[in-house]
Design goal:
The chain has 254 residues and is α/β, with parallel strands linked by helices. The protein is built from 8 helices and 7 strands, in the order E-H-E-H-E-H-E-H-E-H-E-H-H-H-E. It has one domain: Rossmann fold, CATH 3.40.50. Strand 4, helix 4 and strand 5 form a beta-alpha-beta unit.
């Protein structure tokens, strides 16, 4: 007997999905039957990940996008509609970080992080919401926040406020979009080993610092977030909106 896939026939746009957390979520969605849009700044990697999904018998397409550019966001969603005809799930995962002391942080680097993490997330969610309202069948918007939204950390004075902003914008979006039966939630990612922080975590001093703060006793892997992302994309989470679901091995309990 064929097992029913929880996202069968739905279309999901996942930004920042050529690697790390976004890729893990995209692969998880594809296995659950979704049409997945793989997006990132590297067009070749977008196509590579999408081809891998198709090779496994699932549905995907690669569409490159720099979410700090509004014209790229418009193209991303326009091409998704051309390819699949609808947008049911929007995972706004793309983001960048900056490990630098407060004293040494320059304005150009700070603005780049804020342009991607805050404004990129905001306007991807907005474009998805506009389409979901037009479709009039509800939808799921999932923003990527972090433990840094709740816990101060050294050398993250630019990055951490962007994640706090994402958690708050998620609440505001949820209130406005509830009338359209569009759920808006965030995932608060813990210390997850990805390419973006691999060098930082490879420093024994940094590794010791982070491990000491995780009750579960290990740093997370991208696949640790997939279950939460699937739950927030399915009908099972219909009555969940405006929340940040922390997947962090207990980090924020400390």
């Amino acid at each position: 007997m064929e097992i029913m896939k929880r996202l069968q026939g739905l279309t999901a746009v996942v930004t920042g999905s050529t690697r790390g957390i976004g890729k893990g979520i995209a692969l998880g969605y594809a296995k659950e039957g979704a049409n997945v849009v793989i997006s990132g700044t590297n067009a070749a990697l977008c196509d590579e990940v999408a081809r891998g999904i198709v090779k496994e018998g699932n549905s995907a397409v690669g569409i490159p996008c720099d979410i700090s550019k509004i014209e790229d966001i418009e193209k991303l969603f326009d091409k998704t509609l051309e390819q699949f005809g609808a947008i049911d799930i929007s995972v706004n995962n793309a983001g960048i970080t900056l490990f630098r002391t407060f004293i040494e942080t320059d304005v150009v680097s700070a603005r780049k992080v804020w342009d991607v993490n805050i404004f990129g997330t905001y306007f991807c969610a907005q474009r998805a919401a506009k389409e979901m309202v037009r479709q009039n069948k509800g939808g799921k918007i999932i923003n990527m926040s972090s433990i840094c939204a709740e816990a101060g950390s050294p050398n993250l004075s630019v990055y951490a406020p962007t994640k706090a902003a994402i958690s708050m914008m998620t609440k505001c979006m949820a209130i406005e979009l509830a009338q359209y039966k569009i759920n808006v939630n965030a995932i608060g990612a813990g210390v997850i080993l990805t390419d973006i922080n691999r060098e930082h975590l490879s420093d024994p001093k940094n590794e010791e610092y982070w491990y000491s703060k995780i009750p579960w006793g290990r740093v997370g892997q991208p696949q640790d977030l997939v279950g939460a992302a699937i739950f927030l994309a399915t009908a099972e989470s219909e009555y969940v909106t405006g929340t940040t679901l922390f997947v962090d091995g207990g980090f924020i309990l400390e």
